[in-house]
């Protein structure tokens, strides 16, 4: 994967002949394969912009004879990337970015990320403002429709209204914090060693064992004791994988909701009936695309998890195994020793039980038993579950003249 360094020109103004003036300068590095959501998020994350409150308008100039080109979608990003690759110099084709308040109708999503590795919007609501009443109403209606299931949890940006609403509607349901929003706050509050802290912080959030977590937290403390105190005050269980009371599997952020907000940004300016029809057709297309993709998958697991499994299988090839019982095995990985219990689907590395996917040590034990992996992965990761997720279509709407509104 190749990256591009892109110059940002920020918060300037366009003159009558299409020149961008009086701007500030910054820069980002993104993949050449980025889509619109990824580019928009990279800019927002780097500049610490809350995209639920602000809109980023992105334009660039190809040459002085052409008016500025605005990037609105994936096609716009692809055209820009192909243009930029022709001249990779940092100063060529800067992105002129204007940050604007979001004063139009707001679409907030309550969503779920399927553990099969795909986004599934469950509900959305159009509101005038993101306040206590709006969130409470959404969660009440969601509970009426969906109910309360075992091992449910909420991952949010720690918005006070979401915290209040879920505590009222879903009492005692765990509420976790988006790791990206916490990192944005760390960057804003503590102006020190961001490069060192970034890699260490994200590794800490994904620690598989308490020992791993404590070792990394000690390193964070060495860099900046204030950051450790800040993370402690939030509560380790709210952002650390290994401390969570409900297994979050791979859902560590709330950014997918913001991605949906970005995709539907322009539609918010529509009249309410047109807005609702836009959302219906958007979800209709979304659902169908996901269904076609999974129908084109021919592995037992969904694409994302099958790749993860194959990576684990490669790592397992050189490991040696010694059986203690039918289900308990000692796995030797170089000088390190790991204990695997296949019956309980646990490994002392922590990965087997937290990922709910066979870790390299479990795969080595299964190879020793001449047994396949299918019974040692979450059923939610399978192609069959993915098909069931999208098998219910978003129904087409008949012509308005055929509506029964009595």
Order of helices and strands: EEEEHEEHEEEHEHEHHHHHHHHEEEEHHH
Gross morphology: globular
Distance between the termini: 57 Å
Strand order of the largest sheet: 4-1-7-5-6
- Rg, rounded, reads 24 Å
Largest sheet: 5 strands, mixed
Count of alpha and pi helical runs: 15
How much helix, percentage-wise, in residues?
40-55%
**Domain count:** 3
> What is the number of beta strands?
15
Give the class from helix and strand content and strand pairing: alpha+beta
Q: Report the portion of residues in β strands.
A: 15-25%
Mean pLDDT: 84
Low-confidence runs of at least 5 consecutive residues:
107-116
Oligomer: single chain
Keywords: Metal-binding, Zinc, Zinc-finger
Pfam family, one: MULE
InterPro entries: MULE_transposase_dom, Znf_PMZ, Znf_SWIM
Domain SWIM-type: 338-370
